[in-house]
Design a protein that fits this description.
By secondary structure, the chain is of the alpha+beta class. The protein has helices at 2-6, 80-95, 114-134, 159-165, and strands at 8-15, 18-25, 60-61, 99-107, 142-146, 167-175, 178-179, 188-189.
């Protein structure tokens, strides 16, 4: 058996962490030269992207309906639809603490005197502010302004148009304590009223 092995020698050549079999044949040993080959390493995966910043609240909050008040009165109608809209507004304010001031604007049509419409629109805005305060919204975050019939959406020529002009709007006045928009309307902070 020894004679058979003299012609062939199997050797194991260790290179780094790899073991390579090398066959040596014949009587004279042959020199085998192995060269190290650089194996490309895949680059590390890119870092995970930063989560997107939460979207900024809109400058105006639009509810899916209109608040209703008693006829020619500042009292909120206690209908399920109106109460649901008020609850939605309160929830928006709870979830969006970046809204540091919300301006509630009351608007009327042009029926009646300008003085009465101014009073009515202010009282309606304040009624909404009181409702929010009773439902755990900090009154310091709310300002109210009554604009009467000074900013109609459409002309007051028809009953439908007058209905559209009787509305309550919700504007983000401050975001993180910074003013969002300039407005000439004189807003009354709720916290400063009795």
């Amino acid at each position: 058996m020894a004679n058979r092995l003299t012609g062939r020698v199997l050797a194991i050549l260790a290179v780094g962490s790899f073991a390579l079999p090398v066959m040596v044949t014949g009587c004279a040993a042959k020199q085998v030269v192995l060269t190290a080959v650089e194996v490309p390493v895949a680059p590390p995966p890119p870092p995970a992207p930063e989560p997107p910043a939460p979207p900024a609240p809109p400058e105006k909050i639009v509810l899916p309906g209109e608040l209703e008040f008693e006829n020619n009165s500042p009292y909120i109608k206690q209908t399920p639809e109106t109460l649901d809209l008020l609850a939605q507004l309160a929830e928006i304010l709870r979830k969006n603490t970046r809204i540091t001031k919300l301006r509630i604007e009351g608007h009327t049509d042009n029926v009646g005197t300008a003085k009465h419409n101014q009073w009515l629109s202010q009282e309606r805005a304040e009624a909404v502010a009181r409702w929010l305060a009773k439902h755990d919204i900090d009154p310091a975050r709310i300002v109210t302004v009554g604009l009467g019939d000074t900013r109609p959406l459409v002309d007051n020529s028809t009953g439908e148009h007058r209905r559209m002009n009787r509305r309550t709007e919700f504007h983000v006045q401050e975001l993180d304590g910074e003013p969002m928009e300039e407005d000439s309307a004189a807003a009354v902070p709720v916290a400063e009223r009795d």
